[in-house]
Amino acid sequence: MKILVTGVAQHDLDTLIPALTKAGHDIETTSDMLSLQTVQRAQGFEAVVTFVCDDLSAAVINALAAAGVKLIAQRAAGVDNIDLAAAHQAGIQIARIPAYSPYAVAEQAVALLLSLNRHIPHAYQRVLHGNFSLQGLRGFDLHGKTVLVVGTGRIGQAFTRIMQGFGCVVLAYDPAMPVAHRIPQIEYIDELADGIARARIISLHCPLLPETRHIINAAMLENCHPDTILINTSRGAVVDTAAVLAALKQGHLAAYGADVYENESCLFFRDCSITGYEDTLLKELLTLPNVLLTPHQAFFTIEALEAIAAATVQNLTDYSAGRRSGNFL
Asked: Among this protein's residues, is 235 annotated catalytic?
C-alpha cells in the first residue's frame, strides 16, 4: 500500500518507519503536518498515517478524498483533531490506537504531581545557583490524601493503582463507564463537584468529547480546597485554561501540572525557542511558579513507541484485508 506519513520526527524514523517498511508498504515521509497548505502532498496515496497535531478538519478531509486517500491511520488514541462526520461522508475510513502504554501516561501524571508537591523544579534550580535553603519547598505526604480520578479507562486505572500504592484514598468520576467495568473497591461518585470538594489531588484521564470539553471550569474550581493540585495528562481542552489561571492567581487552586494545552496544536512538537510564539494565555500561565507544563511527552517511552508502531502496522494490515477491528471508528 502506498502510504504518506506526516509530521515525522526522529523517533518515527527510529521506530515507526522501519516497522511500516518491514511490513512491505511503499512509504513516503514528510516532517510537515497536514493542513490546507500541505494536503496536496497526499495526492496518489491510499492512506495517510497522521498524528494529533495534524489538521484533519472537514476542508482537509475533503481535499484528502479528492486526492484519492481512503484511510486515515491515526498513530494515537485521541481523534479530536479529526472531523469524523466529514471523513465518513467522504468515504474515508478512520483507524486509531486506543491503547499502547497506559503506564507511560499514568507515570507522567505521577511525575508532575510529585514535582509540584515537592517543588522539585525550584529546588533543582536553586541548587544549581548554590542556594541550599529549604524556604518555600515544603510539600505534603501523599499517603492518606484523597485523590479524584476523572476517567477510569486504561490510563485512569493505571494511575489509580499507583496512587493506591502511595496509600491514597481514591475517588472516581466516570459516568460513561459501565458498572461492570468499574475499578473494584473504589468509590465512584455521581457528581463531579462533590469529588472536587473532597479531593486534595485531581487527575484527569478522560477523552475530549463535547460533554468533557471544559469539564474543569470556573464553576467547578470554586469547589476546590485551596491546597488542591490539578493534573491533566488527557487533552488540553478538558480544562478551561483561563479559569485555571484565575483560580491559581486567586488562591483557589494550589498548583497545576499538565502535559497538554488546549491551544497546543500550533505550538507543541515544534521548537519555538528562536522564533517565539504568540499565545498570551500560555505565556501568562507559565509565569506562575506553581505551574508545571511538559510538551505532550507523556506517551513518549520506548515501550509506547514500539506499541504504536506495531498497532499502526496492524491497522493497515486489517484495512488491506478488509477487516475492521475495534480500532476502526
From this structure: yes
